[in-house]
Design a protein that fits this description.
Layout lengths: L12 H10 L21 E6 L3 E10 L2 E11 L6 H4 L4 H20 L4 E6 L1 H5 L3 H12 L4 E2 L2 H11 L10 E7 L4 E7 L8 H6 L15 E8 L3 H7 L6 H14 L16 E6 L1 H11 L6 H4 L3 E2 L1 H20 L12 H14 L5 E4 L3 H13 L9
Parallel strand pairs: 1-4, 4-5, 6-9, 9-11
Antiparallel strand pairs: 1-2, 2-3, 6-7, 7-8, 10-11
Helix pairs in contact: 3-5, 6-14, 8-13, 9-13, 10-12, 10-13, 12-13
């Protein structure tokens, strides 16, 4: 069983539940939505409102997978200024509502009836989050729910099931977000190699509710209240680029002391890290020299510690101006890439590995898999 994580004052389960009740929402992570005809291939939607971005996918089930019908992604910087004030600013809420109006129009155009629309760290922490969610409901008609850090981590993990290698016995899944970073360590040694991706997928029922027989055992998990935006804000007053990067990396590592694998001997053989975030995919795109992002080349790519270090050293040598003009990084990512790289470097320093798997997938994909699995509309077969 995964140990109970220490409760944080800014993101307790009680606050999450209170926000959901206040909005008239029950926690329905594991409850199937109403499905009248499983053969009709209804559309599903998943919206992830994070500290930095608002992203949505609309998809339909197909076999053991789903096919993306429409998508939306926009940097809204909802958490701008949150670190200093503890509140969502008027400007950030306005930007976010404008983005959510676009999402609502897409949902209406596709006549989507099965959806989960969730908010994460910024809304878990902001004192005025419930007021903001009421404003969203009033102005867009969308009912967003704040999910707890454990559910965010769990959904990120199941989205990565297709990338789990048959030789993987110890798995670390890392989701670097805008406001927080989730780490989940899973022991797969009791599961037969061919069943390991399916064992990860069964975690949609909960870290401790996986059924009988050989299962994926969650050794430990943690949600660190530092993501690319919040970590950057911690050291915004440090002028020297290299010094700021080093401070961010060591500061992040200090927050891992309560994560049990941090203090234990971990085998290198049969060990795999899967990284899911804009940071990881940007580093991968830079390594491949992609001036135009191509998901098919990035998702599933394996990188070594040496290759990741080479990219990060190049970012440092470019300096702030060079990174702003680097087409591989992109305008939306250039101001946040070094805080994300600092987190990634800390992880590689602690758990050096010959294969970090890059995942261009995350919370939204996990939401889709969880909904479809609960409804029983996914067919049998391997997850690709």
């Amino acid at each position: 069983m995964a140990p109970e994580r220490p409760r944080r004052a800014d993101a307790t389960d009680a606050q999450v539940e209170a926000a959901q009740v206040d909005m008239g929402l029950a926690s329905r992570a594991d409850e199937p939505s109403a499905l009248t005809d499983p053969g009709s291939a209804p559309l599903y939607a998943a919206l992830d409102l994070g500290t930095n971005s608002c992203r949505m996918l609309i998809a339909r089930p197909e076999g053991s997978q789903f096919v993306i019908v429409d998508s939306f992604s926009k940097s809204v910087q909802l958490g701008a200024g949150l670190e200093a004030t503890g509140r969502l600013s008027r400007a950030s809420m306005l930007r976010t509502v404008q983005a959510l109006r676009i999402c609502e129009k897409k949902l209406q155009a596709h006549k989507v009836r099965r959806m989960r629309l969730v908010a994460t760290e910024a809304c878990r922490r902001a004192r005025n989050a419930r007021d903001f969610l009421r404003q969203v409901r009033r102005e867009t008609g969308l009912a967003l729910e704040i999910i707890a850090a454990e559910e965010e981590a769990r959904l990120a993990v199941i989205s990565c099931a297709p990338l789990v290698g048959p030789s993987t016995e110890q798995l670390l899944v890392v989701d670097i977000g805008g406001g927080s970073t989730e780490l989940v360590w899973i022991d797969l040694s009791a599961v037969s190699p061919e069943n390991r991706p399916n064992a990860i997928m069964r975690l949609h029922m909960g870290f401790n509710a996986q059924g009988e027989g050989a299962v994926a055992r969650v050794v430990d998990w943690i949600s660190v209240p530092l993501g690319v935006a919040t970590l950057k804000d911690q050291f915004i007053d440090v002028d020297d680029d290299a010094a700021r990067f080093a401070l961010m990396s060591w500061f992040f590592e200090e927050h891992l002391s309560k994560f049990s694998p941090y203090n234990s001997e971990n085998p290198r053989e049969g060990f795999q890290i899967i990284g899911t975030s804009g940071t990881v995919t940007t580093v991968a795109a830079s390594f491949l020299g992609l001036r135009r992002y191509d998901r098919t080349k990035v998702d599933g790519l394996e990188m070594s510690t040496t290759q990741i270090d080479q990219v990060i050293r190049e970012y440092l040598s470019l300096g702030p101006e060079g990174r702003r003009n680097d087409p591989r990084i992109g305008r939306d990512r250039q101001s946040l890439i070094m805080s994300g790289a600092a987190i990634l470097q800390a992880l590689m320093r602690i758990w050096p590995t010959d294969r970090l798997s890059v995942a261009d997938r995350g919370l939204r994909e996990g939401l889709l898999y969880a909904q479809m699995s609960a409804d029983g509309v996914l067919g049998d077969g391997p997850y690709r």
